[in-house]
Amino acid sequence: AKIITDVVCPFCGTLCDDLEVKVSDDGKEILEVYNACVIGTEKFLHSQAEDRLTVPMKQDEEGNWNEVSIDEAVDYTAQMLCNAKKPLMYGWSSTNCEAQSAGHEIAELCGAVVDNTATVCHGTTLIAVQDVGVPSCTLGEVKNRADRIVFWGCNPAHAHPRHMSRYSIFPRGFFTGKGHKARKMVVVDPRSTDTAKMADLHMQIEQGRDYELLSALRVAIRGNPLPETVAGIPRETIQDVAETLKSGRFVVIFFGMGVTQSLSKNHNIDIAIALTRDLNDYTKAAIMPMRGHYNVTGSGQVLGWQFGFPFCVDLSRGFARYNPGDSTSNDLLRRGEVDAVFVLGSDPGAHFPISSVKKIAQLPSVCVDPHYTPTSAVCKLHMPTAFVGVEEGGCAYRMDNVPIETRKVVEPPEGMLSDEGFLERVLARVKEIKGVA
Ligand code: SF4
After folding, report:
1. Distance, CA 55 to ligand 1 centroid (Å)?
2. How many angstroms is it from 397 CA to the middle of ligand 1?
3. Which residue has its alpha carbon closest to ligand 1 atom 8?
4. Pairing of β 113-116 and β 87-91
5. Which of 17, 365, 369, 426 supports an S-S bond with 341, CB 3.0-4.6 Å?
6. Residue with CA at minimum distance from ligand 1 atom 7
7. How many CA atoms lie within 13 A of 36 on its CB side?
């Protein structure tokens, strides 16, 4: 057996790059995974599952699944995208930037809408950043400098298990030699989560009242008077948190879907950014979204540099349009405005509202995923591919927008294509059908 070092975990936006993987001498089997959290370890070990699907499957009229060849899968996908007036190409967050780029070329040729998982996650953050800008930093700066950490509406103890040990709470950095002993941790969450239980200060806010509490913190930071309670939090606690943040050398506010998808949505983030800006009058402060899928940040980057917008890009008129609330996946599905659905690197069948999932089930549809997922179950074709970061390398962006090259540690099953490989085949077939050189 041999050990491969500096392996990158392709699961969450923390994108840990210090994994070690023990593989068999023939390079085909993963024997052990070191340093990863339990979720990351499972991602590697699942690629070895004996019941893993290795051939494309297509549903017939009666709903029975039948094996088809890769050529047939490529042709079905290309025909579906070419015949549709306005196909939706959704997902992209659990694959590499190379595959994203190949997919966008198909989308441009077919006049598709390209949307990623930010549409139900940090899309509101992206809107706020476009509105007011963002003072942010890298996770390396957090590790080396930050001594005041806020987790607002997120639960890294479960969703990003190594975030606190690698970057934010526990590690000893260049200017943070005492590790967690010199850091203060503030958690804002209506629930008493496992992250909240570790906090020095937990503000158990009333559900959906984030905007008010963020406003109150801005008031408290300036030393202006407050009402007795705001969002269920006593005045003294808010003042205490304001003083804790002001007295730090470097404050970082991490935030998650508890604040991006609750009442006020992007306006919550506008004001959280304003709070960060205010704190910079007293100390140094930065803010960062806790991005979920390991390369959702990369999807925004690639869409951004190719089309100018980070999600819900509508190419159906031959040029890029961006209109969240109109060109976002669930709005398009609910209004019945798309006539084919292609999903890669995400599982809307598990995470979209049931009304949207029912719409996908009625349309010509393709799911590309190493696993057979709830999305596969409602699609007409399931195309299994290699695991990026396990059986295929490629670029991914960490939650702080730092690009990291993932590593291939084992060979995929014989004959299995990568996401990029499949998309390149579809692109070639689309060009053939459309008579494009
Ligand atoms: Fe993988 Fe995230 Fe766990 Fe790191 S914290 S090992 S990136 S799942």
Report:
1. 29
2. 14
3. 40
4. parallel
5. 365
6. 15
7. 25
Q: How many CB atoms lie within 10 A of CB 319?
A: 9
Q: Which helix (H) or strand (E) holds 419?
A: helix 419-434
Q: Which residues pair with 87 in a beta bridge?
A: 340
CA nearest ligand 1 atom 1, residue? 40
Closest C-alpha to 344, from 382, 300, 397: 382
**Average pLDDT across the chain, whole number:** 97
CA of 406 to the centre of ligand 1 (A): 13
Q: Which two tokens stand for residue 262?
A: 């609750």
- Among 257, 381, 293, smallest CA distance to 96 is for 293
Banded pLDDT at 437 (limits 50, 70, 90): confident
In a domain, 248, yes or no: yes
In single-letter form, the type of residue at position 148 comes to R
Q: Whose CA is nearest to atom 3 of ligand 1?
A: 37
Rounded CA gap, 369 and 199, in Å? 38
Could you give the number of structural domains in the chain? 3
Ligand 1: nearest atom to the Cα of 38 = 3
To test the ligand 1 pocket, which listed residue (15, 37, 399) has its Cβ within 8 A of the most ligand atoms? 37
Give residue-wise pLDDT tens across range 381-432: 999 999 999 999 999 999 999 999 999 999 999 999 999 999 999 999 999 9
**Does position 80 have pLDDT exceeding 90, yes or no?**
yes
| Domain termination site, one of 239, 264, 289 | 289
Asked if the structure places residue 52 within a domain, the reply is no
Domain that holds residue 21: 2-46
Report the C-alpha gap between 111 and 430 in whole angstroms: 12
